[in-house]
Amino acid sequence: MKLQLLIAGQLPSCLETRDVWQSVCAQHGVGLEIIEVEDEHGQAMIDKLGIKSFPVLLADGKIRAVGRPDPQHAADILQNLLIS
């Protein structure tokens, strides 16, 4: 499974979300790619998926979570992704 987190620059909510997802993924031994909306790859993903809100967690190219989860909710989301 390929996890990607699309964040909007230095917005506090995006930075906090990045920290939550990085921590949860590290605890579960899962890789996480961080993508900035300002770079070409980020813009291409926004256009392809029609993303309007940030931050966004993608699993295998599909939107799986939007916004900033607390660590337990992020762990629950990741666990569900791992067993599905």
Automatic annotation (TrEMBL):
Domain Thioredoxin-like fold: from-to ranges: 12-78
Name of the protein in question: Thioredoxin-like protein
Organism: Thiohalophilus thiocyanatoxydans
Pfam families associated with the record: Thioredoxin_3
Domain of life: Bacteria
